[in-house]
Amino acid sequence: MTDIDTPIQYVKGVGPKRAPLLERLEVKTLQDILYYFPYRYEDRKNLKKIASLVYGNIETTAGEVVSAEVVTTPKKKFKIFELLVRDETGFLRCKWFNQPYMKRYFEKGQKAILSGVVKGNSFGGAGLEMENPDFELLEGNDRFIHTSRIVPVYKATEGLSPKQMRTLLFNVISSYAPAVEDFMPQDIIERQSLLPLREAIKEAHFPEKFSDISLLLRGMSQAQRRLVFDEFFLLQLGLALSKKKKILQEGVSFQAKSLLVEEFVKMLPFKLTNAQSRVVKEIISDLNRPVPMNRLVHGDVGCGKTVVALIAMLIAVDNGYQACLMAPTEILAEQHFINIHKMIEAIGVKVALLTSGTKIKPLEEISGGDINIIVGTHSLIQEDVKFKNLGLAIIDEQHKFGVMQRASLRKKGFNPHILVMTATPIPRTLALTLYGDLDISVINELPSGRKPISTKVFFSGQREQVHAIINRELAKGRQVYIVYPVIEESEKVDLKNATDGAEAIKKRFPDKRVGLIHGRIKQEEREGLMAEFKAGSIDILVSTTVIEVGVDVPNASLMLIIHAERFGLAQLHQLRGRIGRGKYESYCLLMAYPPFSEEARRRLKVMEATGDGFRVAEEDLAIRGPGEFFGTRQSGMPDLKVANIIRDIDMLEAARKEAFALTDAEQSLQDYPLLKKELQKRWKEKLELVQS
Description:
- With 692 residues, the protein is an alpha/beta fold.
- Among the domains are: 46-148, CATH 2.40.50.140; 271-443, Rossmann fold; 453-610, 3-Layer(aba) Sandwich (Rossmann fold), CATH 3.40.50.300.
- Helices cover 37% and strands 19% of the residues.
- The longest helix has 27 residues, at 222-248.
């Protein structure tokens, strides 16, 4: 018996030869192929007379076969099948290269429908031509698949042409879509005016009722809207159950009054901003409750998240628990360790660093409880790392980790409080999608005294102007970052590199001290160079993106980014955040090397137009689209195949409301067995959400 999980090989029309080809397209089961939707549509409904065909357009016409011959080219003996058709207005020649077998499909006097790009006769003959057009013969009772309708176009693979894919999908949808079971609760279908699922699947593949091509191309037909709602609903239902499950967990309640925090805040050389104070209050309120905190703190580069995290960690320590901070890279972990160590060693709190590069790993001190705060990379979730009593886990740059790592860290203690931080400002739509199971705090205010950074794009011919600006800042006693995309020259890419760049800078500014830092330099040497730069004994620091995170040098007032057109928006904004940390006017110069894409041009314009990380993030999302923006594949979420979180924000919010309302009423989903099964399938092992 065929069901939705039947392996693709056993689906009618596939078989053992085609199955491996479809698996290349990640189509492994009957469900996969039913949900393998077209990536675009072509309108082949309107049959045109041959005389009305427009050169260069994709057109559809019908004609009577005048001749069907295989022609062999004189020099290379290349075989071309030529078909000549006519209607009352003229003749059309069609050619199929190296496909002599096509002759057997056509007979003189037959009527054929043809769809393809209209070309002129390249050998100077009269009339119009089509090369390799799609065709259907008008005899028989076949329903048209490739012409005379809105035609779906599928991504294909070697060995399976788009036309073969279309035929296969047509047969699969005709055979199996009527048996698809609808998992959506009926009251939600009615409330949201959704199409039945089987109808939505059929119409999304081969539109008949809903054949408005402009809606289909925008992904907004009624059929597509149903499928979008399903994706968002299953995603939000997973998040809602995850949140509900955490709310039902027991956790550790912390006393908020902390002498360590009081001492720490007194020592700070600045006053907390209103936004920092508000977020600290939200965190304290969570820590007070006997339920594990699950909070995301996000804000712009330099908004002071580390101080907020440190206050939370000190509360945990004062309550007799350990705290840990997990960062995605060794460099960021090192930087956090250095900053935290300096800030709190004076108040007697013990801090340790644990990364794969840590030579002597303090495992016994951690398991014995001698160390209060542990800063590290994913090394923290290795099996041999045991905490005495982990009460708070902080994850920095959460999008670099997945839901699974968050779950692994949670298992290191008895349901510890979890605080997630990111310096990537997240558009609200993405926050709802990726972090729907977390409470969200926003630090939307920079510390007082921070001056806006002027950003300007320069091109390779304006090098002298750029050097003059660098000279001006150096003459004021300021320091400069120069960032390159690569360390050394490579045969694969023709890009300026940091190693040659450092030599050129030394020659251009012979009386200045120039340092070079990149990821291949050993950790100790990197730290030493950064310390020298911070102390002012290096004037110009040439680097790769290793300086993207965490280094505070208030005297650095200028950054030059070479090949800025090659960097993503989030990375450009992160790099820019390294300057403007003191009381001086700061400048970010973006050196771009044409030719570059329209997308790169948009990124550079955004950087010039705004320093607001939230606006940068919104633009980044609009330019790159949601899948790319956060690497959602790695985030542990089910993939979104048809939904688009920018275009479909209204559907996202409606689906979220319905999902959270359903879990409020019925957390076990026992009354909805089909929905429960679909949810488990979509989330797979990604979260232990629904207990069977």
